[in-house]
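Bench log. Compound arrived from synthesis this morning; before running ITC I wanted a structural hypothesis for how glutathione sits in the protein. Inputs:
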Amino acid sequence: MLLRTSPTSPFVRKVRLAADWLNIPLELKPADTADSSDSLRLENPLGKVPVLITDDGETCFDSRVILAHLDQVAGGGRILPADPKARLAAMRLEALADGLMDAGILVLYETRFRPEDRHEPRWLDHQKGKMDRAVDALEHNPPRADDMTVGTIAVACALGFLDFRFGGRWRESHPRLAAFQDAFAARCPAFADTAPRA
Ligand SMILES: N[C@@H](CCC(=O)N[C@@H](CS)C(=O)NCC(=O)O)C(=O)O
């Protein structure tokens, strides 16, 4: 299977971590989300990475759908628990971490797509509020690194994204989450291998 990637996308990183954990080989093909001639927009009308292209040519996005698909390819119940209660908890955790990344990306895009004198402070504060509340909620109820699920994979990627794009300021004030990230990195060697690079 082929994965359309970007070296800095935390959502792509989710897929790469899941595939590595499940021993599913993926061929990586970088995409340029800003280039209208890149086939990415045909593969995903939203023009976003990641996109998975299966061996029979089917395109699959977004990262949540891809992780669920990879779990199924691996036999099911591996990173998406079969037990309904555990499954819901893992999916909810994934949604929280994805939402944290979405808000961070909106903050980044505001600064990338608009000149500084047109940044909208109310919008930036609105998104930053979501990020702060998500990190605080995770600190209050930290995930367990020995539980490898769509949720813990997404949280690890969200924290890696904060480290990369927002200077890792969350660490000092969120010690339980920092301990989770360290334990996750120790358990999952692909976490270091997929660290974002500019
Ligand atoms: N919900 C999507 C989010 C994917 C996403 O936001 N990808 C960003 C890179 S991190 C992207 O491709 N942005 C390009 C754009 O929005 O045009 C997922 O889970 O895959």
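What the model suggests: The radius of gyration is 17 Å. Residues 84-113 form the longest helix (30 residues).
ITC booked for Thursday regardless.
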